[in-house]
Design goal:
The chain is mainly α. About 60% of the residues lie in helices and about 0% in strands. The chain has 5 helices and no strands. Helix 2 packs antiparallel against helix 3. The model has no long low-confidence stretch (mean pLDDT about 80).
């Protein structure tokens, strides 16, 4: 079928299906070690920057500090200050820690922003 015009280099031409088969076998060989690596169990939890977990006392302190900062920002609006005082009175550290286990300081500020956003609007 091929002559020197179609095959100027004079090399043996194999069908594309046979060369593809060799590539597929090579890819299968590579996938086996990857599959073993992926099947190994690893911890899903990743602590970015290695920040220490907050204790109950630290959370209490940070909540009081966060609310007092919000009060000072909105000292001209009495309604917002009342809402913040209510939030502080009802705040339960145990429930907060159960809802948000293993939080770091950066997690704390994101959570507090989300919880108090509706109060300051």
């Amino acid at each position: 079928m091929f002559n020197s015009v179609n095959n100027p280099f004079g090399r043996k031409i194999e069908s594309s299906t046979s060369s593809d088969q060799g590539k597929k076998e090579h890819q299968q060989d590579k996938k086996e070690p990857e599959k073993k690596y992926l099947e190994q169990e690893e911890q899903d939890e990743v602590r970015i920057g290695g920040l220490p977990l907050l204790t109950e006392d630290e959370i209490k302190y940070l909540v009081n500090n966060y609310i007092s900062n919000l009060k000072s920002e909105h000292e001209d609006n009495e309604k917002i200050c009342q809402k913040l005082n209510k939030y502080l009175e009802k705040f339960d550290v145990q429930k907060f820690m159960k809802r948000n286990p293993n939080i770091t300081s950066s997690d704390f500020y994101m959570i507090m922003y989300n919880e108090t956003e509706s109060l300051v609007k």
